[in-house]
Structures are given as structure tokens and as C-alpha cells.
Amino acid sequence: MERRYPRIRFQKRLDELKKDVDEMGQATIKSYQDAVSSFVNYDKELVKKVIQANKDIHLMNYDLEHKAMSVIASEQPVAGDLRFIEASLKVGSHLKRIAGLAANITEVARHIKNEEIPV
């Protein structure tokens, strides 16, 4: 049973990475939806929410990168597990970028809030 414990711990750490990427993805989707909503119907509170979400998602990505590097350093994964960790890092990076773009949309919305947006 002792021999299996490290593998169980390793699988738990991979599951945590997957959960973190999923949470980050859900937060990014919500942020993007809110950004588009604030662009169409300007809402000052929604703009603040999207900008804060951008900061939160950047922190989530930072934590994801550190967890992934920790798994690589301590567990020395190979093959599929290593590819999964690499994909998690790439997805996290893209989600961080999308959240930044959502914040940019809200900044534009702030500047054009008094303009009529064509349907």
C-alpha cells in the first residue's frame, strides 16, 4: 500500500490542476460575458467587476503556474501527464489573455458610454 500512496498523491495534484483550470475558465467566460454586456448597456458596477475579475484571473494563473512547476519538480511526470501539465499552463495563459481583453472591452465601454451603439 505504501508504494501506491505517492501515485495517489500525484493523481490528486493533477486533479487539483484540472479543477484550477476549470475554475479559471468559468471565471474568464463570466468576465467576457459581463464585458460584452457592459459594452452594450453600460453599467459602472459591471465594469468594476470585470476589471477585478481580470486581476483575480491573473492571480489564478500565477497560482496555476506555481502548482504546475511544483508538480513537475517533485513528481517528474512523463508522457501523458507531462502533456496534461503543459496544456494546463497553455490554457491558463490563454485564459489570462482573454480576461485582459475583457477588461479592455470594459475600458472602451467606459469611454463610449454616452454613444449610441448600433445593433
What characteristics describe this protein?
about 120 residues; mainly alpha; Methane Monooxygenase Hydroxylase, Chain G, domain 1; 3 helices
Q: Could you name the CATH homologous superfamily?
A: Phosphate transport system protein phou homolog 2, domain 2
Number of helices: 3
Total count of domains: 1
Mean residue pLDDT = 91
Helix content: over 70%
Identify the CATH class. Mainly Alpha
Shape: elongated
Work out the number of β strands.
0
Binned strand content: under 5%
Distance between the termini: 64 Å
| CATH fold-level label | Methane Monooxygenase Hydroxylase, Chain G, domain 1
Radius of gyration: 19 Å
Q: Structural class from helices and strands? A: mainly alpha
Give the low-pLDDT segments.
none
Question: What is the H/E string?
Answer: HHH
**Largest sheet, described in full?**
none
The CATH architecture would be Up-down Bundle
